[in-house]
Amino acid sequence: MAEKALQLEVVTPERVVFKEKVDFVVAPGTEGSLGFLPGHVPLITSLEIGVVKYTKNGQQRKIAISGGFLEIKNDKIVILANTAERDDEIDVERAKAAKARAEQRLASRAPDIDLVRAELALKRALARLQAAGHE
Ligand code: ATP
Q1: How far is the centre of ligand 1, averaged over its atoms, from the C-alpha of 57 (Å)?
Q2: What's residue 110's pLDDT?
Q3: Are strands 16-22 and 6-11 parallel, antiparallel or unpaired?
Q4: pLDDT at 19
Q5: CATH architecture of structural domain 92-131
Q6: Which residue's alpha carbon is nearest to atom 21 within ligand 1?
Q7: Rounded mean pLDDT of 9-21?
Q8: Of the candidates 32, 53, 29, which has an alpha carbon nearest to the alpha carbon of residue 131?
Q9: Which residues sit opposite 55 in a β-bridge?
Q10: Which CATH superfamily is domain 6-86 in?
């Protein structure tokens, strides 16, 4: 394929989660969804907890991320995130359990609940379920 492509790399402090050439990327920017095609201007932006979508050979795949940063330059995208999981490695039962736990905490309204922490845990679980196609 002689057409232009994007190199997409998703990296956490622990590992390289994804490193491949792709055709199109959509990322959850903190100020809205961002789409990237080859030839995009250089940019650094922050990302929310959510799902990175990429298209390769006409097929869309997903990666859940817990927020982070994205840099694009010379048709190379680097996403740095604290945690990230490819759609094929997400443990759906674990994410469902995390979602239920977070929802219970939020519903309990107990005085010792850290609401922000529970909301973030819920968002991570929802992103994982969405990436795995279980939402
Ligand atoms: P849990 O309560 O299930 O641990 P969490 O949101 O608190 O969820 P994190 O602290 O974000 O978990 O992640 C800890 C590690 O576990 C990271 O390496 C992350 O990639 C991995 N991880 C978390 N949930 C899943 C999942 N459902 N499937 C696969 N890996 C996961």
Answers
A1: 29
A2: 83
A3: antiparallel
A4: 98
A5: Up-down Bundle (1.20)
A6: 83
A7: 98
A8: 53
A9: 24, 60
A10: F0F1 ATP synthase delta/epsilon subunit, N-terminal (2.60.15.10)
